[in-house]
Amino acid sequence: MDMTINVQLLFSGLAMGSIYALIALGIVIIYRAADVVNFAQGELVMLPAFIAVFLLDTMGLPAVAVYPLVIICMGLVGFIFEKVAYYPLRNRSFLPVIISTIGVSIFLKNGAQYVFGALPQVMPRPTDVEVLVLGGVIIDPQYIIIIVSTSLLLVAQHFFFERTMLGKMMQATAQDKDAARLMGIPIARMIAITFIFSTILASVAGLLVGPLFYVTKEMGGMAGLKGFCGAIIGGFGSVTGAILGSVFLGVIEVYLAFYVSSAYRDAFAFIIMILVLLFRPQGILGERIAQKA
């Protein structure tokens, strides 16, 4: 086997796994805080890519201003999402909320087509460098940007949850809402912030993956499902598991697509997920279960 090709595949897999990890993290933190699976997470990846293309191409704004502006806009979308799709149903069972998130997914997909059109769009790359050659290995610079950006974001997220009071309150809410309420933590506010944070993670994923592919209304659907698969493979409910499972999925998917068949690339993710559910249903790290007081 050609080592150069394998290294190129590894970078590609790590980049895609990083995208899946950001999506999976958004799914997991909402699940931990609100006990619901957000099936609109993929569309929250698609929407910021469309907004960025509009601001970069149509409005002519510089990238340094567009990216922060898109993230702020998506934070607002996350706040509205929580107030519309979750808050009115917060005292109901999980099923109505899941159906609500599916409705938001359909609305965002068709809304994007209505506003931005049905034709695929191209998102400009943040750098003019087309390829990087490192020791004979040809690497797309966008892969480096994705891996580095995701790594820095994960470090910042760890610092936020472990070293800040707001992060600790969000963790307390996710672990036990009743106990957190007795401690004086505003549960409703923490859940709203969690939805905003999850949407920002999805928006970063959309901005990072947008330059690699055409921006279409369908781009987030499969990415969202693979992020969901990554969360299950790692151990649904585990933040660390979501990261490891997603990166593992991204790498294995790329290698299988190259050495087996690229026609079944999307199917490999679900095959791996099914195998994990059959032989290790708790995932790679196992679902974290705590005894509540």
Commentary on this structure:
This protein is an all-alpha fold. It contains 11 helices and 2 strands. The chain has a domain at 15-217. Helix content is 72%, strand content 2%. Strand 1 and strand 2 (137-139) form a beta hairpin. Helix 1 (3-34) packs across helix 6. Mean pLDDT is 88; it is low at 288-293.
Keywords:
293 residues, mainly alpha, two-stranded antiparallel ribbon, 11 helices, 2 strands, 2% strand
Q: Provide a count of the helices.
A: 11
User: Mean of the pLDDT scores?
Assistant: 88
Query: Over all CA atoms, what is the radius of gyration?
Result: 19 Å
Task: Indicate the low-confidence ranges by residue numbers.
Answer: 288-293
Number of strands: 2
* Structural class assignment: mainly alpha
List the strand order in the largest sheet. Answer: 1-2
| Shape descriptor | globular
Distance between the termini: 55 Å
Order of helices and strands: HHHHEEHHHHHHH
* Beta-strand content estimate: under 5%
Report a brief summary of the structure.
This protein has eleven helices and two strands. The protein has 293 residues and is mostly helical.
Topology:
Elements: H1 3-34, H2 43-58, H3 63-86, H4 94-116, E1 132-134, E2 137-139, H5 141-163, H6 165-175, H7 177-182, H8 187-209, H9 219-234, H10 239-259, H11 265-279
Helix pairs in contact: 1-5, 1-6, 1-8, 1-9, 1-10, 2-3, 2-4, 2-8, 2-9, 3-8, 5-6, 6-8, 9-10, 9-11, 10-11
